[in-house]
Amino acid sequence: MQSRELKRIEVTPEVVFVGKLLERVTGGALRVPRFQRPFVWKQHQILQLLDSIVEGYPIGSILLWETDSTVTSIDQVGPIEVKERPKGVVSYLLDGQQRVSTLAGTLQLPEKSSKLTAGVNWRVYYDLEEREFLPEPRGGAEVHHFPVRSLLSTSGFLAACRHIETTAAPRSVETLLQAADRLANAFRDYQVPTITIKDANLDAAVTVFARLNLRGRRMTADQMVSALTYREGQFHLATKLDEFQAEISHRGFGCLDRGFILRSVLAAMGRDIYAKDWEGLMVRDEVREALPEAFEDATRGLRLALKFLEDLGVTSDRLLPYGLQLVLLAEFFRLRKAPSDSELESLLRRWFWVTSFTAWFGGVNTARVGKSLEEMRELARGERREFDVFDLESPAEPFPERFDARSARVRAFLLYLVSLHPQSIHGVPSPLRPGELLSELGPGALAYVSSSLPGPLRSSPANRMFADRDHSGQTWNDLTNQDESILVSHGFSDGARALIRDGNRERVIEARLQKLIDGERGFLEKQRVRLPASRQALAAADSDSSDTDEIE
Question: Is the pTM of this model over 0.70?
Fold first, then answer.
């Protein structure tokens, strides 16, 4: 009997200095395959990654596929144009594109390159005095702002240090130079763990990735499916997801986790929206063939669902308490037969408010989600007129004790705050656009009223308010001369103007807290949501808004 040689795939872990890793990127030897999603990180995520390196925190491993095969790849990483693919063996980035693009874009940015691409400012500086990263200040960098792009370049680093020596006050030169030296050493000494897959074709490499993921690696659902279904010249899920996400970004949903879009596609195919056997599911010919039509059906339902949510005041993904709410609504509107049914839409509106304020999705299991999805389908087909899985008489969760923008309960509260139609506190009074502010600034759209308060009051939602786009710091000083109507639009109590002028910050926030609690209760009654038993601000049981949708 003839023996068959077994070819084993080699998986090699190692650590690489940041500088060496980026040399491979810019030199074209480490490439981003086209089936990867484009750069989507926001400015604050870029700054957080850089801060992690300075602090010595791990930023996760990078997964590479080493091969001599030619795979279509992109010629730009972040804002950096990379060289053509060299002959022979190269590495393709399977996981870690956002991190590698961030490092390349901030540390390798040429002096004359455009600083703005993908909606972020790549010219990042480190404040040597405050010890924090920031995008290039609008008024220009000051002497204590060290350019990140100069950290790995010897000539660039020396030039930046000479600028400090010739510009800074003599008494601060040595302190600033020492801080710059520590900063440079942190980046030059930082090592990134990599895992390299060798002796494998693309399908095998992605299969290894899938199995590594099951053992604890972090890979999002859309990345997994895009890689597993990628074929040159055929329907490319990642590209379609990019196009759809660009479309809905104009509606405030550009940061919606793509996993929820994928779940809608799975629902349109009649598949389990919690499917985990991607390796077995997505390589089937019948599934690949069904993807194009399912994607069109799902996105049609998503567009209608977004219109429904916008009418309720949900004008940003950061105002949506649960991503699964959108998935279920999209399936309803995808299947709805009648063009309009006021009674049914009234039931859907109540469903949305009840599930938002009661944390229904926060503790539900996958089986109940599956049943609720089927109920939505039956409603859409006219086979039922009420819910069984959802208890629309459940009481709302108590008013949240702490402000946490990731909390579903806090997001539900923000929808009440939006309903007050907050006004600008700068210049001529004009309506703010909370959805736009949240989409652009994230939690930064909600400024502190006062930063000098004791712990519980400082962290209370009553100490946050929507502020103008160009606002920085606390709003207290800007509130002292506002008309009462402006203050009321932000949920301040009657007579707040006099309290603010008296300067008693604790009394102002305490009074606003009670006003917000009472106002929200009135809002709940209007939406036919059963009131919480307590009028006090309590720690909400659910703090997960389901923003992330990683494969488990």
Answer: no
Q: Which of 195, 219, 234 is the last residue of a domain?
A: 195
- Tell me if residue 135 falls in helix, strand or coil: strand
How many domains are there within the chain? 3
Domain boundary among 328, 345, 380: 380
Q: Are residues 532 and 414 in the same domain?
A: yes
Kindly state whether residue 68 falls inside one of the protein's structural domains.
yes
Residue-number span of the structural domain to which 366 is assigned: 255-380
Q: CB of 179 within 8 A of CB of 130? A: no
pLDDT tens per residue across span 141-185: 999 999 999 999 999 999 999 999 999 999 999 999 999 999 999
Task: Write the CB contacts of 279 (distance below 8 Å, at least 6 apart in sequence).
Answer: 207, 210, 211, 228
What does the radius of gyration of the chain's CA atoms come to, in whole angstroms? 26
Contacts of 110 by beta carbon, 8 Å cutoff, 6+ apart: 149
Greater model confidence, 9 or 258: 258
Residue 59 lies in a domain: yes
d(CA 374, CA 77): 43
83 and 178 in a common domain: yes
Q: Cβ(124)–Cβ(46) under 8 Å?
A: yes
Give the separation between CA 544 and CA 468, rounded to whole angstroms.
27
CA–CA distance, 497 with 483 (Å, rounded to integer): 8
Tell me what percent of the residues of the chain surpass a pLDDT of 70.
88
Helices (H), 88-201: 97-107, 154-167, 170-188
Amino acid, single-letter form, for residue 139: G
Quick one: how far is CA 186 from the chain centroid? 27
381 has a pLDDT exceeding 80: yes
